[in-house]
Amino acid sequence: MTSYQETLPNNELVENLIAETASINHVEVIENVIDSLEQDDSAMVSQTPDGNYLWKFKYGSVEVFVQLSGTSDEDTITVWSAVLKLPAKNEPELMRYLLELNCSSTFEARFGIIENQVVVISTRTLAELSPGEVSRLITIVATIADNNDEALQSKFGAA
User: Where are the beta strands (DSSP E) in 4-149?
Assistant: First the structure.
């Protein structure tokens, strides 16, 4: 019987991994993801003096927004897209349907309400956030919004 000795990573390896994660340029990663998803050169970005960024781009039949609240580990990336204006027809049925979708098919995103609009939204802190996770968050919100907006508007739109 062969015996294998378990080796733990040394402190240098751990420090290198932490440094790699910390050195990710989230603005660059977000812009690369948006470049791969946007349509009709629709991407726009604004930056505030305090380091917040807001991007907007078209994906299918929806507009997608990406907000970066800063670049520290405690800051957040929030991605959202409006899919239906409220008030809507048969809101109790709509709310039940959205809760069912939240439970079964929204992955890291969720349906919610912001300023009398049903949105698909996802928020995550930047701590240990990889480029792949940034891509996944933006893609999930854009895809779920685009896949659901027209059906929601058709069934529940304009009360």
Answer: 44-47, 53-59, 62-68, 76-85, 110-114, 117-125
